[in-house]
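hi! just following up on the protien thing from before. the input was this:
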Amino acid sequence: MENFTIQRIFYAFLSLLLIFNYGMVLRGVVQKIVARAHGRFDPPMWQPYINLVKVFSMRTAISHGIMFYLGPVFRLAGGLGLYLFIPAVFGSVWLQNFSFSGDVILVIYFIFFGQLGMALGAAESGHPYSAMGIMRGLAQVTVSEIPFTLAVIAIAAQYNTLSITEIVAAQQGGFMNWTLITNPVATLAGMLAFLGMMMHSPFDLHIAPQEIPIGPPTEYQSTFLGYMQANRAFFASAKLILFMNLFFGGATSIPEMVVKTFLLYMTTVLVGVVNPRFRLEDSIRWFIKIPTAVGIIAVLIYTI
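and the predicted 3d structure came back as:
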């Protein structure tokens, strides 16, 4: 039993190492694509690694309350927890992670956990616009999770399980078994929510680029900023794998996982490149009207 536990921990470490580097490479690729789309000089693909080393080599003399320092830790814990309870590759021994029955409920909590920790940390930052950032970030996460939760309820009712592994298992056997085909309404609700959860334009409200000096790059420096940059790799990759498992049949190999998650990520990048940013009230109104309505229809289809 002890050897089995050590083996699972070792496999989890290797899994985290793989997904971290995959997330960093994704960020590097996306930065180049967005720069080309905007007509700017594009940074090298390894720029995220350079930025991470730079911020971790710095120290800060700023002193705030204890929650300010725990904010990035909570944020990182949310990304790590989300990934560790999702099967990255179905049937793989070392990429199965700690998936268990009912884990889909747990991962929903983890998605919100990191954002809540950052809100508590920002509240002690001393920044005059922290309240605005907190309001925007929590509002964006909350309204985007409503249609996502409705989509998850519809999927759970369809497959009669709350286990992500069992949901993926039910989609094996070919493209026609994917949730995309068997439950397109829930897939549509989930993908509309996915646009907001990835926080690309037009839903990048928590930082509000070019508008106000607010957000983690302003309030946090040095190692604390490094934790958040590392979490971006974990969190983005984990959400991509989660949506791949729920709606697109999961993956039975690493190359399949890379192809599916890359295409998912490019969907949000494409939307972000061609659309200007919403105002907060426009974003909330949009999520409540369209994705939530689609999610309610998906639930009604499988519960009535």
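The longest helix spans residues 2-38.
Residues 176 and 182 are 7 Å apart (CA to CA).
cheers
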